[in-house]
Amino acid sequence: MAKKIVQRCLNNIIVVCSTKGGEGKSMLSIQKLPLLFIDKNIFIFEVDNNNNSKKLIQNSEKVNFKTFRVNDGLDALDEVEFNTLASKDDCVNIIDCGGGDDSLKVLNILKDKNLSGLTYVIPMTNSISNVDNAIQTIDTILEFDKTANINLVLNRCPAYDFIAIKEKFKALFGNDEFNLPSRIEEFQNKVKNINYILETDLPDIISSKHQYSLLDAYLKAKLIMENIDSIEASWLEEGKDVYLKNKKLNRINEHIYKYCNTFIENFKLD
Fold it and tell me: Is the pTM of this model over 0.70?
């Protein structure tokens, strides 16, 4: 008698993957996506034979991070399953897959485990070849999970301005001057959302100086910016020098607060 295949649908699992390296998977997994889950316990599982990003956020108070070699990917997925099944909808598990074959191997593990209905995030930069890589990744997912929630992310956008985005992503949206046909139609029945992420060096600055995540920095900035009147009043009481010094130091918080709020307002997974 043939073995019956039972597909299991687990909530709160986000898989960030691409068959192409250098698309910003780790930056998205570690620095950006956690901003969407401020009130949850956040677990990031890096499954990658070439990188270990732990040092970037080793001082984070919000993000729990583990790194695995691809050959240990099954162990990572078992822990993800445990977190999801044991939680009461209070956690999110983000799987950060390495590029190329690393992503394909993780997808094969998900296939073998008969996991379905997961959320997938596919980042893409503006190279012409990246369109083919994104489609390959999406088609690989849909081969074993027709119910997957797939989200395409156009990474390192110059602005939240569609004209500027179309100009940068010529290979995706087409361009008459360069005789490039539009390929956006190839994605429309396969992805749930197309998200845009603004280019920024804030995560690099924060992780290099403090070794914590953009989410940690955002929560600190949020506390200050949402109580700025009383905080500035206390600076004022300490005199001109203290006031001017703190105003200057607070500019980074203004940038972080604005960037993160914009990301949270615009990025959709549902």
Answer: yes
